[in-house]
Amino acid sequence: MQTAAWQPSFLCGVMAQKLIISTELSPQHQLRHFANFRWGLIAFTSIAAIAGWLLDYQVSSWPLIGLILLTHISTNLIPILFAGSEKQLVHIYTISCCLDILLLGCLLLLSGGVSNGLVALLLLPVAVAAVMLPGKVSYLIALLAIMAYSLLLLIGDLTIPDLDLLLQQAQHAQHNGHMHHLSSEAGKAFNQHMLQMWWAFTLSALLISWFVNSQANLIRLKSQQISALQQQQVRHEHMLALATFAANAAHDLASPIQTMSLLVAEISADNDNPALNDLCQQLNRCQQIVRQLRADAGSLRNNEQRLSVLALTEQQLQRWLNSRPDIDLVIKRSLHAADFTLPDSQGFGAALINILDNAADASLANNRAELSVSITLQLSHFSIGIRDFGEGLSDNRLAELGEMPQQSEQGLGIGQFLANVSIERLGGSVSRSSLDNGTLTLIAIPRPKAEQT
């Protein structure tokens, strides 16, 4: 009885669904967090300015502070308006961090300079740049923050008279030389304190850039590895589902094919129609395919001895030629190293036959009953190139083929998907490129490190 699981549209819909990857690692998610961070920084500086105004804090110019705050607010529209590709986002993060340091420096300059307790806010853009930007760029942001702090230290506090002028006034006011000596000592102590603060800020900025950036890069690498493992797991689950469908199909088709073979044999005894002979041959081929499928499944269960990659390739090519006598196969060999074994010979063999079948169908669709196969065995890897003479494929089709099952006029693309997964399980890769007249499929499998001697 036919169920929904056997409907092609249902199967393609299940197998071609997108991989669900966490959006926490997406550029859009990072951009939203970055914009929210800047809104928080702007809100904090605005609250600090309002509190200073209410408490009559000494500043150089309240109107200028208000203008700088409005400018800071307007700059946070840049991530929203100009967000695009990932490369553009890097430029946006860089420009935004530079603007943060510049505007924070201006606010500090008008409200006490390095003597303002909020001077540590200059380290926030440094920390954000270390997380969001590449290493060299984050170091440049740290140097920019150090330059801003140095300028604040050199310019001093604009809300009070110059320190040297105060010392001169103190010298004229005091007639005692001992008091002059105390004033000079106090000035030296203050300068030493400012210099120590500059060193502390510089070391903090550089250490934050180095440590946070290195940890952020490590987290990015781990996230990429986890994402790749998630995709691999989903693809293996799809492969397992397809294997279940194939096993059920082989079981369900065995009895109807046997029944049809008996009926054709009875009809042929009383009828000499040539079409019955052709039908009998096709039914015999179907029985052979089902028996081969059962034999492959049995060899997997029994964990048969592994075969060498070159011997297995030759065996599968001969087996495929026996099933496709209508195809002229040209084989070129380039052997420059010793053979090596595969941990999953059945998976590789099935993948190779799937790719050969698709290539042969493409050639026949273009009225070319021929294929070209090149086998290369190097010290580092084994590769086999399969060149068909079909009409070729578009770049979009080449990018999608084998990644997920794609429904088309020729089928569901399940064979190509299974071939890719099987080769990738061996640590290899399958690449496809379009030629002037046809498509070249290249299978590459690295040699195990234990045999690279």
Keywords:
Heat Shock Protein 90; 5 strands; 2 domains; disordered N terminus; 453 residues; 9% strand; alpha+beta; 14 helices
In summary, what is this structure?
This protein is α+β, with helices and mostly antiparallel strands and 453 residues long. The protein has two domains: 24-231, no CATH class; 305-451, Heat Shock Protein 90 (2-Layer Sandwich).
Descriptive report:
This protein has 453 residues and is α+β, with helices and mostly antiparallel strands. The chain has two domains: 24-231, no CATH class; 305-451, 2-Layer Sandwich (Heat Shock Protein 90). The chain has 14 helices and five strands. The protein has helices spanning 8-15, 27-54, 62-75, 78-81, 86-110, 123-132, 135-155, 163-173, 177-270, 274-302, 309-323, 345-365, 395-400, 414-425; strands spanning 328-335, 370-377, 381-387, 429-435, 438-446. It has a five-stranded mixed beta sheet with strand order 1-2-3-5-4. Helix 6 runs parallel beside helix 9 (177-270), helix 8 packs antiparallel against helix 9 and helix 9 crosses helix 10 (274-302). The chain is elongated, with a radius of gyration of 37 Å.
